[in-house]
Design goal:
binds iron/sulfur cluster; mainly alpha; globular
């Protein structure tokens, strides 16, 4: 069974349709990376095989995925910390949100814009996903920071602002990097 076509704008109003579309984008992107030899599918998605199997059973029943019988290495500490931040600070209230916390944390370890590394159609689609599943974090990003930077800023705040280059964004040389539109 092929993955369904994603919602091209990623910003419609039907929540189940959007969720399925976003998961389809994420899986298609991770499958393409796997095909390029970048790692196993669970590693590229950021979900342990048992969780990935449950996600597929819920959203894409009948879809056959590779690598679900392979070992899943322990994620690095920074990735686990970010997944925890998303889960607890974001108000994640569903199993889908807990899966997405792991997925966003894993994909935040890549080097491009987060929406690109998730395979989503736009930054707007990523914002809509975060608003649906992590409403408290979405509401807290009042200055429209780039999402990956915003997550790290939250972790930095928890560490007494010891990770960023300056105690306040307004005095920081990285300001344009963190706030420039994607
Ligand atoms: S602008 Fe500077 S202080 Fe603000 S989040 Fe970015 S790196 Fe941290």
């Amino acid at each position: 069974m092929p993955l369904p076509k994603p919602d091209p704008g990623g910003v419609g109003t039907d929540r189940p349709v959007l969720d399925q579309s976003d998961f389809a984008c994420i899986l298609a992107h991770a499958l393409a990376e796997r095909d390029r030899g970048l790692g196993t599918l669970p590693d590229r998605v950021g979900l342990a095989p048992a969780d990935l199997a449950r996600l597929v059973a819920r959203w894409f029943p009948g879809l056959d995925l590779p690598d679900l019988d392979l070992p899943f290495p322990e994620p690095p500490e920074a990735q686990k910390q970010l997944a925890l931040l998303l889960t607890w600070r974001g108000g994640a209230a569903s199993e889908d949100a807990r899966w997405l916390a792991c997925i966003l944390a894993r994909r935040s370890m890549e080097g491009n814009h987060l929406w690109e590394d998730l395979g989503l159609p736009s930054r707007t689609a990523l914002g809509a996903l975060i608003r649906r599943h992590f409403p408290r974090l979405h509401a807290a990003n009042t200055r429209n920071m780039r999402w990956k930077k915003f997550f790290y800023r939250q972790i930095c705040a928890d560490a007494g602002f010891s990770l960023c280059l300056a105690p306040s964004c307004g005095e920081c040389a990285e300001y344009r990097e963190c706030f420039a539109p994607d």
